[in-house]
Design a protein that fits this description.
The chain is an alpha/beta fold and 337 residues long. It has 11 helices and 10 strands. It is globular.
């Protein structure tokens, strides 16, 4: 039995970018800690849990943070390395509170985290040791915009160990309350993680599973159509397809759409709105439900990103489309897997 069997059976779920600035933006780093704490404190976990239960959503992803250095859970290891006061990490452990709220309905919780330091926070970049001597512009990091502290090797080994320690602290605190991780920005895998010696993909995944050995892990190489598996050490494909909706055809160039992609559970992540965490629904509900069923029939699962309200809710237009997916959890399967 694979760790990811439950994801195949879930068939679909919800993703929420709850951040200090719009997803993938280069702004927001100047948000005061007091204002970030006020936002996180105002997140209505019970309200969101009720909405997800109403549409029978099997699971939810929530972002821990992204580019600005604001995170929605405290972490002592992170603060000791970065040394900022006041911290940009929230006082409230929103992940723990959300997990408790979701538990009665059986809604699983997973978390999103970039594979690198927040590029818009120089203090964090330097404190964590994420200071490559090579051009890491895909992360928003370029030599000359930060100062290295101590020796920095080609693989960013010191940073990797620091980041694994941060992840391990969160994982051990949450335990089985968190059942999966989605790591963004794994663009430099050959340079950083494909090594027989730690730190590497194996130690990265082990840190995420420190508190829950059954936690499923995915490493995102960026938008890839067809969907690929990045490493044998992931349980499911990150599957970021952005604006594309891949379909199964007989043409070889479309790639595979089947239960396992090089051993990893086939999974797709895309947005239901105009972009990540924003806009209005871009498709009619019938298309959303039909595409979800298509991926399900291929043995896969689809995660739909929806924009959050300031208090962590889901607007009515998106709830209606999520409600249409409840029927996608049909017991029959006509495809592989």
């Amino acid at each position: 039995m694979a760790r990811s069997d439950w994801l195949r059976d879930a068939r679909w779920g919800v993703f929420m970018h709850y951040l200090a600035a719009p997803a993938s933006s280069q702004s927001g780093a100047d948000l005061p800690a007091t204002e970030w704490n006020a936002l996180v404190d105002g997140f209505d976990v019970d309200g969101l849990a009720r909405q997800l239960a109403d549409v029978r959503a099997p699971y939810l992803f929530i972002t821990l943070g992204q580019n600005t250095g604001h995170y929605l859970s405290p972490n002592e290891r992170y603060d000791s390395l970065v040394g900022r006061s006041p911290s940009r990490l929230s006082r409230r452990d929103l992940v723990a509170d959300l997990a408790r709220a979701l538990e009665p309905a059986g809604t699983r919780l997973m978390v999103y985290l970039p594979s690198h330091a927040p590029a818009q926070d120089r203090l964090a970049v330097e404190g964590l040791g994420c200071t490559p001597l090579w051009d890491a512009s895909k992360w928003g990091l370029r030599p000359g915009t930060y100062a290295a502290r101590g020796e920095v090797d080609e693989r960013l080994s010191a940073f990797q160990r620091n980041w694994e320690a941060v992840i391990r602290e969160w994982s051990e605190r949450w335990g089985r309350a968190v059942c999966g991780w989605w790591f963004d920005g794994c663009y430099y895998s050959d340079r950083m993680y494909r090594s027989p010696d730690e730190p590497n993909f194996a130690s990265f995944a082990a840190a995420a599973r420190a508190g829950n050995p059954d936690s499923i892990v995915a490493f995102n190489p960026g938008v890839k159509v067809p969907v690929v598996s990045l490493t044998e050490f992931e349980d499911y494909t990150a599957g970021e397809v952005a604006g594309a909706l891949p379909a199964r055809t007989s043409y070889s160039y479309t790639g595979r759409m089947e239960r396992l992609i090089d051993g990893a559970q086939f999974h797709i992540l895309t947005f239901m709105g105009d972009g990540w965490g924003r806009g209005e629904p871009r498709f009619p509900a019938d298309l959303v439900a039909g595409f979800t069923r298509h991926v399900n029939d291929c043995g896969g699962a689809v995660t739909w990103d929806v924009p959050p309200t300031e208090t962590g809710g889901i607007r009515a237009a998106f709830l209606a489309q999520l409600g249409s997916l409840a029927g996608a959890r049909h017991p029959e399967r006509t495809g592989t897997g």
